Task: structure prediction
Amino acid sequence: MFKRILSKELRDILRDRRSITLLIVVPLILMTGLTFFYDKLLAAPNEGNFEIAVNKEVGDSFIEQLQAYFPGVTIEKQTDLQEKVKNKEVQIGIQVDKDWQEKIGGQTQYQLS
Result:
């Protein structure tokens, strides 16, 4: 009985050209289009030029530590970080206090075992 109902419904669906088009052709076109769209969307125009802006008050030791973690990234000192990020001159802006080392050094360190 289930096979009879299934075969009847399939015949009804496949009889109409619009149904075949909607079932087969449209998904193929959509998937192809989305694949090319996402490929272009994810490919950044300036892939090799990733820049991080740091506020001017930060010492050179912080920039050296960032360079150690991100070797292929350009790190520059800037005055107005929010404006640079908003204008898309840099990808990331990092605002750090002048005394960041003392604040981190004054924290209690815990060891989990």
